[in-house]
Each structure stands twice: as structure tokens, then as C-alpha cells.
Amino acid sequence: MSREFPTGLTPPDWLVRNLKPQQAPLSWAAMARAGVGMALPLALGLAAGRPDYGALASMGALSGVIGDTADAYRMRILNIAVPQLFGAVGVTLGTLAYGHGWYAVAAVTGVALVSGMISTIGAVASVSGLLLLLNCVVGAGLPLPSPWWLAPALMTGGGLLVLLLALLAWPLRAGVPERAAVAATYRTVAALLATAGTDRTEEYEEARRTVTQSLNQSYDLILARRARHHGRSPDLTRMLARLNAITPVIEAAPAAHLAARPLPPQIPEAVHHLARAVESDDTPLPALHLPLPTTETGRAVDHALRHAAEVVTAPDVDPRGIDDRLGRPAALGIRTARAARTVVLSANSWRYGVRLALCIGIAQALVSLILVPRSYWVALTITFVLKPDFGSVFSRALLRALGTVAGLVLAAVVLAEVPLGRWDVLVLFLLAPLIPALTPRGYGYQTAAITPVILLLSDILNHQGTALLLPRLNDSLLGCAIALTAGYLFWPESWHTRVGDRLADAVADTAAYVEAAFTPTPDPSGRARMRRRLYRDLSVIRTEFQRALTEPPPTGRRAAAWWPLVVAVERIVDATTAARVRVRHGAPPPSTSEIAQVALQLRELSAGVRSAETLTAVRTDLTGPSDSVLEPLRQEVAAARAIASPHRRSPATRGR
């Protein structure tokens, strides 16, 4: 029976979205690594008579557990080892600044500025910046054992132990995560084809979004390896070729859906056979029994499937003919230089760095003037809450507070009932797996899992038991308050979403894609890359939209108004792809004037979205022959223009 809340007591939507756990499978291997990686250093420290050394190494292992999120083994090296290096630098700087009063405040604030700026580069850089600041705060707030290099060595050693555990199966399972990811993409395409052409439109659109996410993940995994091994690894080359081969099938799906005729069940079943062949090279591919195509759409699907089957069964692939659909990665030195320029010249990088440095500076100055027992916890809370790529600052502050309270309940039981000593090893072995188990559910759940672990290790270092609970709660609430005020409320951009401007960019790119889709080009792979980037950008917009919905009014309400247009732009890209597929397989091509008219309307739509404050109907005067291949596209553009309004925004809302 569903539970109903009394009128007036129904929780707001943004709060429900924040508290709702995300669905994710349990990673038993990551849970096992967390238990062993964090408990083993503590056990060794106790055996050597130096439990404080073991606790520091376990703290380093905690950062490795947090970064242990990648499936591919090479990505695990980047996700764990690189942040450990930055963490070692951070704890060294903090240790050198410890006890130096306002010099320590200035040093930690400067590290916060650098940490915030490098966090805007990418995922690995973000975690690296996080550990740089976290460990600096710990080093500046705790009397760590001397000499100065001992604490960095212990903490880094704990993190590298987690990395070693994560790489143990590499010799036996090299390439398995990548093959599994590509096979999973094939299976999502099979689900997409099963819903194409049916009246289950919502299922089809959800399946298409799942395909986009799976395709992005697969390309990211493979291209991470390709940056070092392209042209030298036959297995990598085959995986990339197989991933490219499914793209024409994905492109044919919108045409099949617009035809409003369900595909024969043999077609999605054939894709499932291909997925099994991709996942295991030992599995032979059975003969494809596909029905004889009778339409342009049927021919497109049939041709794409047979091409994919040829690539999957091909014993060798010429690496010179492989295109990655996203552009070849530049050399490491070039990418490093680009990242450095991004950090130094980007206004967004400076803006976030200043926000983080301001909050950390306020926290460090405050605890220097007011006696706070565990002063470093305030800055640690701010560091976790004020992360641009981790979600809404408001929602993270809320979830941090709630997660801390929940974690303190468990920590109270542990600190009150478990005596110091060898029993701590067993408790840590049981608590640590909760971190990788609950982290995918949401930030509040991660905080609830980390809090008792941190307090257990702190008790080993300080021997204060349950006296740690109340200071931990007070410091976390103080850190959340500073982050909400100095890092959120005082910044106008916090009250506006970025969905509108990003969506305007996507509409403008869609106009360019419409022109390129029906224009002869010597570089067809460039057109495919354009489509892939469009879908990737729209996926990012969806993520930004979901993030904005967790904000309280009026920000969340403004973001919700953009949702119909996000869906409309996705349908425009689908309709363009479908029209191009039909032309490629026999439909009469559109005239140049038709293409120019649609592109012009899309650019007008882009300009209107960029300056829109509200969403109301505008003119939709697209005309053309009703039997043209572009007729479905014209209808989608008209529908999108019926949503957006060109009313000008005030300068104060430009940051949306």
C-alpha cells in the first residue's frame, strides 16, 4: 500500500530527489579490496607496536578506496596512483605549515586556490585536487609523527596497497573490462531496436539514453588505453573496430522508430548474438537469419547489422583504418600543456578556485580565533561539499549533515562497545566495505559510511572514544554553514542553472549537423564524430538538468521548465539522423533550400534559447513538400520552436 502524507506535510520534490538512493549494482570485488586494504595496515601497525602508523596508512587507504571506481585496470592506475601523488604533496605542505599560526592559514588557503583550479580539468584532476587539499588540511591540523616525510610515506603506502589489490587480477583478466563494456553496449542497442517502431515511445527514449551512456563509457575505457597503445595492440584495435561497427546500427534505430513499424524479433536477437561473440572470442557467431528488407529503413538496419557481423568475426583489423569517432587523442605533452592553459586562462577555473579558497580561508581563520577541538574537520567538510563536479553545493551540504548524523549513530556504538586494540582491525574490516557499497547510492550514503571509519581511526590516534562524536557533528555543521554562505548564497551564479546556455550551444551544433548530414563530404567519419559529440553534449545537459532539480526553489523550478526543450532537441537530432539514413538507402535527397531553411530555424531557436527567461510559443513557419524526407525533421523543429521564447533575459541572469 502506498504511503500518503497529510496535506501540507508532503516533502518538496527537491528534498525527495536528494534523499532518493540511486540504483547501482554491488561491486563485491571493490568491497573486498576496501576491507583488506584498510584493515591490513592497521593490523601491521598493531603488530609492530605502532598503531598510530597503522592508522595513518589506513587513512591513505581510505582515499584509495574512494578513488577505486574504474573497471579498466589502466584507469585504476590513473584514478588511484595520480591522486596519491598529489595527496603526498598536500600532507607534506600541511606538515611543514603545522603550528605556524597565520602562516598556516595562508598556506592552506593558497593550496585551496590551486586545488580548486586544477579540479576543473577532469575527473582524475578533480580527485587529485581533492586529496591535495584534504591531506594538506590534515597535515596542518594534526601533530603527525616525525620526521616530516614519514606521514606522507605511510598515507601514500596505504593508497598504493589498495592499488596493488586492484591490479592483482590484471595478468589474468587483461582486456576483460573493455570487452564487457563493448558487449554491454551491443546489448543496449538490442534493447533499443526491440522498442523502435513501437508505440512505447517512453521506453524507446529511455533505451536511446541508455545506449548513449553505454557508448560513452565504452569509448572512454578504450580511448584511455588507445592513447598509449593505438596501432600496437591487436586486441585494442579489434575492440575499437567493433565499437565503431555498432554505430551504423544505432543511427538506423531512429529511422526505424519514425517508420512506426516494429522491427522483426530476429533483428534484436541478432544483436544479442553479436554481443555474446564480442564478450568471448571463443563463442562462435551463429548465422544471421535476417528477414528480407523491403523498405529504406529495413535496408539500413540490414546493411548495418551485416557490417557489424563482418567486423565482429574478422580475425584481424587494420589499425590505420580505425576511426575513434571522437578524434584522435593528442600526445601527453600536448594534453598537459592544454590543461595548464585551461587552468591559468579559464574564468571558470579562477572563479571556483577563489570560491574554495575563500571558504577554506574563512574556516582556517575562524578556528584560529575560536578554540575548536578538531579544527581540521571544518575545512575537510568544506572541501567535500564545495566540489563543482560532485553535484549541487546546496544538496551536498544538506546530505553531508544528514549523512554525518547517520554515521555518528553507528560510530557511537563502535566507540562505546569496541575496546582499542586488535578488535579495531575486525571492525574496520567490516565497516570499510560499506564505503564502495554505499557511495554509488549518493553522497549522503557515502558520508554515512565514511564517518564511522574516520572516527575509528581518529580514536586510534587520539584515544578519546565517544568524546569525538559531538565535536565531529559541530564541525561538520559549521563547515556546511560556511560552504552554504560564502560558497553558495553569496554567488549569484548559484541561483541559476546552466541548462539554458548549454542547450543553446547544442541547438547551434545541431544546425551545423543538419547542414553536414546532407552535404557530400570527403570525411564521413567527421560527420559521425559530430553526431557522437551532439549526443554526448545532450547527455551532459541531462546530467546538469538532473543536478539542478535537486536545488531548492526558484533554481529547481526554473530548471524544470527547460525539460521539454531538452527532449525536443534530442528528437531533432534523431530525426536528422533518420533522414540521412533514409537518403543513404534510396530516399530522394532534400533540396538545398530545405536544408538551409531548417538550419536557419534552428539557429534562430538557439539565439532565442540563449536569451530566454520564459518558455512560450513562437512562430513555426517551416514549409516544404509533405513527402520530403525532411518532413519529420520539420515537425520536430516546429515543436521545439513552440516551446522556446526569444524574450530577453536580464544581465543578472546571464550565468544560467
TrEMBL record:
Q: Enumerate the Pfam families for this protein.
A: FUSC_2 (PF13515)
| Swiss-Prot/TrEMBL keywords | Cell membrane, Membrane, Transmembrane, Transmembrane helix
Q: Which stretches are transmembrane?
A: 77-96, 148-170, 356-377, 397-416, 423-439
Q: How does it sit in the membrane?
A: Multi-pass membrane protein
Which segments constitute the Integral membrane bound transporter domain? 365-485
- PANTHER family of this UniProt entry? MULTIDRUG RESISTANCE PROTEIN MDTO, P-HYDROXYBENZOIC ACID EFFLUX PUMP SUBUNIT-RELATED
UniProt lists the family membership as follows: Belongs to the YccS/YhfK family.
Q: What is this protein called?
A: FUSC family protein
Give the species this sequence originates from. Streptomyces actinomycinicus
List the top taxonomic levels of the source.
Bacteria, Bacillati, Actinomycetota, Actinomycetes, Kitasatosporales
